[in-house]
Amino acid sequence: MSDLKIKIANREIPVEWENRSAVAAIMNKLSAVKKIPMKKDGMRQVGNLGISAPRNDRNMLTKAGDIVLQNDGFAIFMGEDDVSATKLGHIKGFSETQIKNLLAPGSLMMELHEG
Q1: What is the 3-state secondary structure (H, E, C) of the chain?
Q2: What phi and psi values does residue 66 have, to the nearest 5 degrees?
Q3: What is the pLDDT of residues 10-27, one digit of tens each?
Q4: Does residue 30 carry a pLDDT above 50?
Q5: CATH topology of domain 4-114
Q6: pTM of the entire structure?
Q7: What b/e string do you get for 42-64 counting C-beta neighbours within 10 Å, with b at 16 or more?
Q8: Mind listing the pLDDT tens digit for each residue in 93-104?
Q9: Which of 45, 51, 60, 97 is deepest in the core (most CB within 10 A)?
Q10: What is the C-alpha separation between 32 and 18, in angstroms, rounded?
């Protein structure tokens, strides 16, 4: 699913999206750029997506750059965590240190849009 794009701090972030119905549903329901305020919560940045999507949660060990639907929100992980979630994708082309630096602020604005 290469038509869904993420921007963090005005920087386009390359993502390898999972081939899942949740990703397709998000893309289909996106009618304009969606700005999502994100807040740091432990080893992740979380925000309210505001779009319902099918879930198929499973237990997983995340790694830096994993993007998931978890609880009521959208989360991007800065490192390992044992969670139950629906994986949406993974940031590509960034080292773990670069991902941590990108996501380190206490809060940030993420944009989600069709490419």
Answers
A1: CCCEEEEECCEEECEEECCCHHHHHHHHHCCCCEEEEEEEECCEEEECCCCCCCCCCEEEECCCCEEEEECCEEEEECCCCEEEEEEEEEECCCCHHHHHHHHCCCEEEEEEEEC
A2: -70, 140
A3: 899 999 999 999 999 998
A4: yes
A5: Cyclophilin (2.40.100)
A6: 0.93
A7: ebbbbbebebebeeeeeeeebeb
A8: 999 999 999 998
A9: 45
A10: 22
4 falls in which pLDDT band (50, 70, 90)? Answer: confident
Q: Please say whether the beta carbons of 72 and 86 come within 8 A.
A: no
What is the rounded CA–CA span in Å between residue 80 and residue 115? Answer: 29
What whole-number distance in Å separates Cα of residue 93 and Cα of residue 14? 7
Q: How many whole angstroms separate alpha carbon 97 and alpha carbon 30?
A: 31
pLDDT of residue 109 exceeding 80, the answer is yes
Phi then psi for residue 76, to 5 deg, are -120, 125
- Enumerate the domain spans of the chain: 4-114
The alpha carbon of 28 is separated from its chain's Cα centroid by a whole number of angstroms, namely: 17
